[in-house]
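Quick question, first post here. What does this chain look like in 3D?
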Amino acid sequence: MIADAMPRLESPDLFYSRRKYMASEDFAECEICKTVIYPPIKYCPECHRKYPEEENFCFDCLLKLKNISDIPKVRDIKTNPEFKFEGTNSYATFEEIFTPENAEKINDFKFRLKDYKGIINDIKRKAFLEFDNLVKSNGLVLDYLDILDKVLLFSKSFVEVDYKSYGQELGVFAFDRIEVDDRQLPGLQITTLMHELSHFLLKEILAHVLCKLLDCSKSSSIDAISTFILVYSPLSRLIDEYCAHSVEGRFTVYGYQDYSSFLQIQKSLEGEMPSEEIEIAKSIGNTFSISIKEILEAYLDDDLRDDIKTQFKEDVLDMPKYDMLALENCNKLKSKGFMQAIWLILSEGFEVASVNIEKLEEYKKNF
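> Answer (accepted):
Ran it through. Tokens below.
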């Protein structure tokens, strides 16, 4: 039955000619009979080889071919990934969270570097499971995707991603949702995705640390508190923005790094924060960025980063400017200092959040 179902080959030479054609997207002419062979519109779901319309089965895998046109566009795929954290306690209200006992747990900060690394690995593992699920459930073939779609698909493994075509912002992150301006060229859309995804990951890391300290399950309330902690103070805003720029710069061609939004925040704080504190914020943000780069580079390996560079060089016509590189802070906090920094961010933020329930309720509605 399998033999009867296989496509009929007129000759070994014609078979070889067709196999040779499979790697090309262009119109081709058979070297034997001079018949025009049209671009491939089918593919094998197993080996992903492309085939012209007249073929129905893969020569090697003996599987029925599918139409390439049936593969959904990555842009149209809707996702809603969840990064759960299971704990003993489950808090339904902010009043249940902001108790003296929980405040003491935050201040005692029984949290070590190995706990932090466990959180990073857990986020990475869940993202890859979601990524694999997106590929399989949508019948995607990674080899058929351009670099922007590959980065977009990976981003959708973490957050919901949508597009906008208005306003001055290249991208926006808010409440586990990213918007990217699709008027940008592909290379700039990629770096924008990396920047906004970093904001999400820093919020997610802090949410997981809170859950670990309070031994509670992750909820919209915990997400609201983590969001508040990253926006309520000048120090936390600088840390968050510097971290995002540092991660973005890793996936940007050398000389095109941009710290403009960090500089805007810094300028708005002129006279309010001494330069020493700004440098501390940069060091903390840079240390967080190292963890986030670790998560992203598990997928965006050397080959994909080369593809990003190629795309970026094709899109960007401006000459590189190296002045922004002076803003890069290479200081990495040591383990003890980094744990102290996280304690400071969470302990002060938790205390201020406890007297801003109305704002937290507003944030909670968006998760």
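The chain has 14 helices and eight strands.
The CA atoms of residues 183 and 248 lie 19 Å apart.
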